[in-house]
Amino acid sequence: MVFTGGPDIDPPFMHCDPIPELGITNRNRDVFEIALVRVAVAKHIPILGICRSALVINVALGGTVYQDLKSQFPQKPFKHHQLAPGNQPTHFVSVKLDSHLFKAVGDDVFVNSRHHQAIKDVPPKLRVVACASDGVIEAVESNDASVQAVQWHLVIELLV
Fold first, then answer.
1. Per the structure, how many domains does the chain have?
2. Which of 24, 26, 65, 149 could crosslink 54 through cysteines, CB 3.0-4.6 Å?
3. Cα four-point dihedral sign 100, 101, 105, 107
């Protein structure tokens, strides 16, 4: 099952209040996709999450999200919401050698970056498998590889 990009995650799903920097949300889509992720995981249906959906998967399984990197990330992150065309990579991501993602893409991946939200706390069912040089989590996966989620738009990169 493939989940795609889209608007910001609605903060009540992470048990927190919205901040002024929060972008547009779609509560109905959040409700639907969070429920769908939970059903897919329970039924062992493989999942690939892209961009926003990496956040949805993380939240659905009990994790949290930075509503806005610039205002909430502990260190000063570089600009993750690039103005470059979607098919143009803008920064490197380091992938952990012991991950399933590494088997697919290698250790350093040059990716596009079009997000201002990012994974904050990762739930026990997932593990961090890739980060940007500023420490922002860029990919998570389940131990059995049935759940893969990346913050970048790999579909755009594959189509070019």
1. 1
2. 149
3. negative
